Amino acid sequence: MAASLRASSSSLRSRLLSSSAAWSPWRFLLSSSVHSDAAHQTETLAFDEIQLSPDKPSTATAFVLHGLLGSGRNWRTFSRSLASQLRDRSPSDEWRMVLVDLRNHGNSARIKGLSPPHNMSTAAKDLADLVKARGWAWPDVVVGHSMGGKVALDFAESCSHGDYGESAALPKQLWVLDSVPAEVKTDNSDGEVERVLQTLASLPSSLPSRKWVVDHMVSLGFSKSLSEWIGSNLKKDNEHVTWGFDLQAATDMFTSYRERSYWGLLENPPKGLEISIVQAEQSDRWHADDVQRLKALSRRGGNPDAGKVSLHVLPKSGHWVHVDNPKGLLEIMVPNFLSTVQN
């Protein structure tokens, strides 16, 4: 039984789509600026920015989107490695990585202007609002892990429909990392993520200490490592601790993640867009029918008037792709990133 609980909790930690990462002295920017509009004001999302030579103008930009209950900081190590390898392979290119905290997560959880509904479409629109508020060029590439993968798909779909206005530019590439683009049906789920969300919802908003939370999670059968990771999302609030994310809003986003399907976009990708799906070899969330459907889409002949879909399998990796096999993931992504600027 104990071994079963440890295995279940390890799988669950992967499903919760986050990892710990120490702070490093890379270029760091936190956005909480206010964008004025004739009718209202909205604060933009929080983000980290990694650029190996910040004194140089960037030649290409990639947005990196985390998963449920995660934050941009979870992707710092991998993103810096990606930027480093890109520079080694093509020294004339200066890549800029923008690690976004999605609404209700990380430092964006404290932003009051990100109103309901909390779903994939509003999370994607937040990215467009960030670009406009900062006066940035639109991203060349958008990378999304799990829930972030569906936000990336929604962003590209909305760009192609003109939902963000005439100034919006479609990304050249999307990377959807171990995120099934279909509806996630209840009967195909083991309910582990729901169990964590329900457990957290049962706790008071103000908690005695991080240790108390960790001990309580362990007492409910979760592993020590998972419980400590959950505890890492707590922040100090006077004599108590509170969650660093908006739990109810994040739960709403998880519901939207499960309900949304993007087969329409994949079957008819707009011209100029390449959608790369990465399936983790040991991930337990893929249904055979979905994999076969993606394989069929990736085998389609080139159409000059349409985009492209490709499927990559990352070996020796579970859902936590950037932790389980970062070297293999870089080997898949780097050559394709370079084709973006070369074309």
Describe, in plain words, how this protein is organized in 3D.
- The protein is of the alpha/beta class and 343 residues long.
- The chain has 12 helices and 11 strands.
- The protein has helices at residues 2-15, 76-89, 120-134, 147-160, 192-201, 210-219, 224-231, 247-259, 263-267, 288-298, 321-324, 326-342, and strands spanning 34-36, 41-43, 47-50, 60-65, 95-100, 141-145, 173-177, 234-237, 240-243, 274-280, 308-314.
- A 7-stranded mixed beta sheet has the order 3-5-4-6-7-10-11, with helices on both faces. It has a two-stranded antiparallel ribbon with strand order 1-2.
- The termini are far apart.
Labels describing this entry:
343 residues, alpha/beta, seven-stranded mixed sheet, two-stranded antiparallel sheet, 11 strands, disordered N terminus
Report the β-strand fraction as a percent range: 15-25%
Give the fraction of residues assigned to helices: 25-40%
Spatial strand arrangement across the major sheet: 3-5-4-6-7-10-11
Q: What average pLDDT do the residues reach?
A: 85
Beta strands, count: 11
Tell me the series of helices and strands, N- to C-terminal: HEEEEHEHEHEHHHEEHHEHEHH
Going by helix content, strand content and strand pairing, the class is alpha/beta
Using the alpha-carbon principal axes, give the shape. Answer: globular
Number of helix segments? Answer: 12
What is Rg?
20 Å
Model regions low in confidence, pLDDT < 50 over at least 5 residues: 1-42
**Biggest sheet architecture:** 7 strands, mixed
Termini distance? 54 Å
